[in-house]
Design a protein that fits this description.
Blueprint (H helix, E strand, L loop, with lengths): L2 E12 L14 E15 H4 L8 E2 L5 E13 L5 E13 L2 E11 L2 H9 L5 E3 L2 E4 L4 E4 L9 E4 L12 E11 L7 E14 L4 E4 L13
Parallel strand pairs: 6-7
Antiparallel strand pairs: 1-2, 1-12, 2-4, 3-5, 4-5, 5-6, 8-9, 9-10, 10-13, 11-12
Length: 217
């Protein structure tokens, strides 16, 4: 376990792109909302299952850095929607590195289409079920009602004071998928207030643990 933080603000994704439904004539695209970023140590032997061959894993003592990014966008090219990006590990493609997204879940079909066809992300459209009384979030569900992922905060508490405002450009890689077979490199311009946050306990359905697509953000 490493740490977690909440960011609220806006992000702009830019780069070469194809026009997609709801995304106008092309990028850059702007998203406004809030997000929870939680980091975990991941065994290198596990991370390599979700990183394309030929991509170098940044690791130390048999581990790399992974985690997840959970966002609620109040404004986007397709309106409000939720997104969870599972970060399988940290990869290197000189002169920089970035977290590689092994899975991307959204609850908007246009966002899934855009992620797949424009950025080559392994995007899937599934329902997000929020329970405010237990401070939990469940993603997806099989015919028996069992969620794919469940996130729970043991002691949610009250929101803390607004943290410092940051502005930065994050290098990003994606692609090497069925929809985008080449590696893409682009920038994510982020401007947000950040603050420490309580961690989520994570429960995942192990039957969905096999690689089901490649991509990064």
């Amino acid at each position: 376990r490493i740490g977690s933080a909440i960011a609220s603000g806006s992000a702009i994704a830019s780069g070469s792109a194809i026009a997609s439904m709801g995304y106008g004539r092309g990028g850059p695209w702007e998203f406004r909302g809030s997000a929870h970023y939680q980091l975990h140590l991941v065994k290198s032997s596990v991370a390599r299952r979700f990183v394309p061959e030929g991509m170098r894993l940044v690791e130390a003592m048999g581990h790399t850095l992974g985690g997840f990014y959970l966002a609620h966008y109040e404004e986007s090219p397709v309106g409000a929607f939720d997104e969870m990006v599972v970060l399988g590990g940290l990869v290197w493609n000189g002169p920089t590195s970035c977290a590689w997204a092994s899975h991307v879940f959204v609850n908007n079909k246009s966002a899934r289409r855009h992620g797949r066809k424009v950025f080559g992300l392994p995007s899937h459209c599934i329902p997000f079920h929020k329970c405010h009384s237990t401070s939990s979030l469940s993603l997806g569900g099989d015919r028996f009602g069992m969620p794919l992922v469940r996130l729970t905060k043991a002691a949610p508490g009250s929101p803390g004071a607004t943290g410092p405002r940051i502005k930065m450009s994050l290098p990003s890689f994606s692609g090497m998928t069925q929809h985008m077979p080449v590696l893409l490199r682009y920038a994510l311009n982020l401007e947000a207030n950040v603050q420490p946050a309580k961690r989520f306990a994570v429960e995942a359905d192990g039957t969905h643990g096999q690689p089901s697509g490649r991509g990064a953000r």
